[in-house]
Amino acid sequence: MRAALVLAAAGALLAPPLAAQTDPAANYPSHSVRVVVTVPAGGGVDSVTRIFADKLQRRLGQPFVVENQGGAGGNVAASTVFAAAPDGYTLMSSQPAPLTTNMALYKKLSFDPTAFEPVVIMSRFPNVLLVRKDFPAKTAAEFIAYAKANPGRLNYGSQGIGTTSHLTTELFMSLTGTRMVHVPYKGTAPALNDLLAGQIDFIFMELSSAVKLHESGNARILAIATDKRLESLPDIPTMIEAGVPNFVSDTWNALSAPPKTPAAIAAKLNQAVNEIIAEPETKKQFEKLNLLPAGGTPSDMARFVKAETKRWTDVIHRAGIEPE
């Protein structure tokens, strides 16, 4: 009898605590985590992901390995993560498109954007109105007046059909009643090259890529597409101030998990990211990259993504953009 009791006691000591058996996040992560980025290495989303991957490794004690899978507006990476095991060891770091607009821009997707488990929005990239240096309008209000007085005569660039720069201009035209000619490019660099050469008149694009051109005088930022002015550019008005109500457009960087990933794991990652956002070192890194912090709960992200999906899908339909 005594031997049986001793064995039972030993078994109890060896068994994992009940909390660890019932809480999937108790021992998470116990090995390296794969973070699949939906864009090639080197861009804003990639840079932000690497900042958080490094800090998550320090905070949670396991490597967060960044893997870039660019292509098809983020669909390549999204397909990979969608099919991964829902255990928290494969995550997706993306721009908005795979979660919002791609369902309206592509006839068929190999994943359901609405089925990903939201973790957190890590950062925001403000979009700005950038014009060629010799553009006649010197202010945002003058730009709007010029566009209205010259229907169909202004050329605007984008990183491609359905990208944020394209849809932001479509939103601008619908709110201002203007009409302009779209010149799509394959990426930011060729679009900026033609802007600097005077081949196109303007582009809506993220601040981090535009600010150096503005500071050097090679192009000019006339307005920012945020709800209030930025501390880094206090003299640049918002498009709302310039007379375009409800004109807000930014690119954001979100962390998502495969469908059916346990909520406890998403919550643990969410808490870690929010703590990282609050660190002074992170704030300094964001300032250098001209980024804005985001954060919030998984539920906050879910509501935001749903609202963004409707807003930009409406823009796509109004513009008559046909899915590929």
Notes on the structure:
This protein has 324 residues and is an alpha/beta fold. It folds into two domains: 33-125 and 251-319, D-Maltodextrin-Binding Protein, domain 2, CATH 3.40.190; 126-224, Periplasmic binding protein-like II (D-Maltodextrin-Binding Protein, domain 2), CATH 3.40.190.10. It has helices at residues 2-14, 18-22, 44-60, 75-82, 102-105, 140-149, 164-176, 188-196, 207-216, 263-277, 280-288, 298-319, and strands at residues 33-37, 64-68, 90-94, 117-132, 155-158, 181-184, 202-206, 219-224, 250-257, 292-293. Strands 1, 2, 3, 4, 7, 8, 9 and 10 form an eight-stranded mixed β-sheet that branches. The longest helix has 22 residues, at 298-319. The protein is globular. Residues 1-10 have low confidence and may be disordered.
